[in-house]
Amino acid sequence: MKQKLISTFLLLTFIFSFLGQTTAQTMPKDADQALWQKALKIHRKAIIVDGHNDIPSPMVDDDFDLGTSSVGKFHKDGDPFHTDLARFKQSGITGEFFSIYVSGATLKTGGAMRRAMDLIDATYRETEKHPNELMPCTTAADIRRAKKQNKVCALMGIEGGYAIENSLSALREFYRLGVRYMTLTHNVTHDWADAHHDEPKNNGLSDFGKEVVREMNRLGMLVDISHVSVKVMSDVLDVSTAPIIASHSGARGVNDHTRNVPDDILKRVAKNGGVIMINFYPSFLDARTNTEENDRAKRLKPQLDALKEQYKDNQGAYNEAERKLLAENLIYIAPYTRIVDHIDHIKQVAGIDYVGIGSDFDGVPFLPAGMNGMEDLALVTYEMLRRGYSEKDISKVLGENFMQAFAQAEKVARIESRKISGDGSLKRINLK
Predict the structure, then answer these.
(1) Helix or strand or coil: residue 20?
(2) Which of 241, 280, 275 has its CA nearest to residue 259?
(3) C-alpha separations of 296 from 60, 279, 302, 369 in Å
């Protein structure tokens, strides 16, 4: 009898600890208890949309199943990943954009479209395996429906516009498969769009690149200006009749990094009705972290190259060796409060209606100090509340601003679709 009572007690303890582990897991040290509880209440009530998550790449490359992690047994940053079903439950996220990331290396090797298809397939397969937790979504209305059903809305965004292989028909097919935004490039300049730190060759967007933007408007696919050059950002704003997004970028006025958006573009995004969704990568958030990380990379390059050669046939062993080496050579990592510094800046320059969150979970090597994975997202809500943000404004940042932009893009698509004229021929240019 005693053993049975103990077993029942332990079971109930586990259940209640799981239900309440957001508080236990993420509460910052020296937090105001009353304010923390208020933040959690706001966080749980809000529709939260995260603009960018790279977990599909491990889903394909490592055969990672979102349901494999043990409930509540979270590890250090990125160990094994920032994302799984248990962490989703704690995060409060309603809509997650699964990144269909295609490496710029495919411009030389080929296979960009095939890679995108593999990642799309993997995303759908996860929703099929876990229908009680995930649901495939393509509209703003789907996201609100997911909130009511207590599920995570799995949306998709292509990262790397070269995935369409210079074909508008391919762009349309990706839309039909459920892709709802496309980052015009990643870190490489290609045939029709210049990247943020690569050599330009199109003076921004080429004429075909502008056609791509117009077709995305017609379809209702959001144009994403993360990773692009400032000239491309400007060209997109010249062309687009629908709100645009930066799915995972920051404010250059806080950290002067090429991945971040300058103030003049922030002001234009506000007039466009778009949203800048803040990336959590410390090197994009903070100049000191960026400098120290670059210095460390140069200093450790010979050792990392040797490890790559040593473990060239064992990616898991290499990852562990790299983790150990980096742990022995620590750098300054900006705290999670730096995320809200970027939100503050965009609020001041563009307005509270034009900023959101785009974590880049599992697409970055480490998260801000104090965050281990998506389970710690409530820290951002707490920090906004601590700085005096109203519940309405917090809800805007967490998701409502994106929802407004997304719904408007859908409205523009309905209008643009009525304007189709001409011979309707499919346009394509040859890859160079």
Answers:
(1) coil
(2) 280
(3) 30, 22, 11, 18
Alpha-carbon distance 205 to 236, whole Å? 8
Residues 6+ apart with CB under 8 A from 101: 54, 56, 57, 119, 159, 160, 186, 363
The superfamily CATH assigns to domain 29-286+334-417 is: Metal-dependent hydrolases (3.20.20.140)
Quick one: average pLDDT of 121-127?
98
The pLDDT assigned to 2 comes to 37
DSSP character at residue 197? T
CA triplet 156, 419, 411: central angle to 5 degrees?
45
Sign of the Cα pseudo-torsion (178, 181, 186, 191, in order): positive
pLDDT 10s digits, 58-100 = 999 989 999 986 444 444 566 679 999 999 999 999 999 999 9
Cis geometry, peptide bond prior to residue 136 (ω within 30 degrees of 0): no
For residue 1, the SS3 value is: coil
Can you read off the two tokens belonging to residue 394?
């917090």
DSSP output for 119-173? HHHHHHHHHHH-TTTEEE--SHHHHHHHHHTT-EEEEEEEE-GGGGTTBHHHHHH
Q: Burial, 174: exposed, middle or buried (Cβ in 10 Å; 0-12, 13-18, 19+)?
A: buried
Q: What's the start-to-end Cα distance of the chain, in Å?
A: 76
Q: Point out which residues pair with 98 in neighbouring strands.
A: 53, 156
What's the pLDDT tens digit per position in 354-407? 999 999 999 999 999 999 999 999 999 999 999 999 999 999 999 999 999 999
Q: Do residues 253 and 345 touch, judged by C-beta distance below 8 A? A: yes
CATH 3.20.20.140 domain extents, the chain: 29-286+334-417
Supply the pTM of this predicted model.
Answer: 0.90
- Band (315; pLDDT cuts 50, 70, 90): confident
At 256, the amino acid letter reads D
Do the beta carbons of residue 412 and residue 418 sit within 8 Å? no
DSSP string, 224-285: E-TTB-HHHHHHHHHH-SS--EEEEE-BTTTS--TTSBPHHHHHHHHHHT-EEEEP--HHHH
| C-alpha to C-alpha distance for 61 and 80, rounded to whole angstroms | 14
